Amino acid sequence: MSSRLQIGQSAPPFKLYDTDRKLRTLKEFKGKTVVLVFFPATYGDVCTQELCALRDSLSNFEAVNAQVIAITVSDPFANHAFAEQNRISFPILSDFNRVVIRAYDIVQEDLVGIYGYTSSKRAVFVISPDGFIRWKWISDNITVEPPYGEIQHAVDDISRGRTES
Fold first, then answer.
1. Is the dihedral of CA 76, 87, 112, 149 positive or negative?
2. Domain for residue 4, yes or no?
3. What is the set of active-site residues?
4. Strand partners, 107
5. In 3-state terms, the chain is what percent helix, strand and coil (to 5)?
6. Which candidate, 127, 161, 162, places its Cα nearest to that of 36?
7. Domain residues for 92?
8. CATH number for 39
9. How far is CA 91 from CA 51, 75, 109, 114, in A?
10. Beta bridge partners of 66
11. pTM of the prediction?
């Protein structure tokens, strides 16, 4: 199932706490291509693999003025420990009240069979420097990692001035 958000739409704004409990907004990254990564929870095996893969590709994104931002429903304290343990230098933001996952229409109800536990689907949105969604990937299967090559391709297209992928 995909999000109601479509390519070409304005990315919904957010204001979330980072690992140091500082409020961060999408607006502060205006002028950069944003790779907005939603993951279900810190310390999940696939989540760890995904964020470490992005960490290991960070120089490729930075080379084309792109900023990786990860969002999870886990609290800022767990995110802080996770970032330190895995040497993650890009922002990991806490959507503990689940407002942003609803705005991006990627809510995962009853995560791993835990009735009433709401998290996010695994999803990636590439947002252009002017704030528009230019590429998206959403999985209903939280055990599937995103297509890293396609993410990089979308970011590279934006850096070359191509906005339709």
1. positive
2. no
3. 47
4. 120
5. 30, 25, 45
6. 127
7. 15-159
8. 3.40.30.10
9. 11, 13, 25, 28
10. 33
11. 0.93
Whether residue 5 lies inside any domain: the answer is no
Q: Which residues contact 88 (CB under 8 A, 6 or more apart)?
A: 51, 52, 55, 70, 82
Residue 13 CA to residue 10 CA, distance in Å, equals 9
Residue 6 lies inside a defined structural domain of this protein:
no
Classify residue 3: in a domain, yes or no. no
Q: How many residues does the structure list for the chain?
A: 165
As for how many domains the chain has, the answer is: 1
> Residue 73 gets which letter from DSSP?
S
Q: Do 108 and 95 contact (CB within 8 A), yes or no?
A: no
Tokens 């993951």 sit on residue: 39
147 C-beta neighbours (distance < 10 Å), count: 13
pLDDT one digit per residue (tens) for the chain, 165 residues: 456 889 999 999 999 999 999 999 999 999 999 999 999 988 788 999 999 999 999 999 999 999 999 999 999 999 999 999 999 999 999 999 999 999 999 998 887 777 888 889 999 999 999 999 999 999 999 899 999 999 999 999 999 986 554
Question: Are 31 and 153 spatial neighbours (Cβ–Cβ below 8 Å)?
Answer: no
Query: And the tokens for 85?
Result: 């343990």
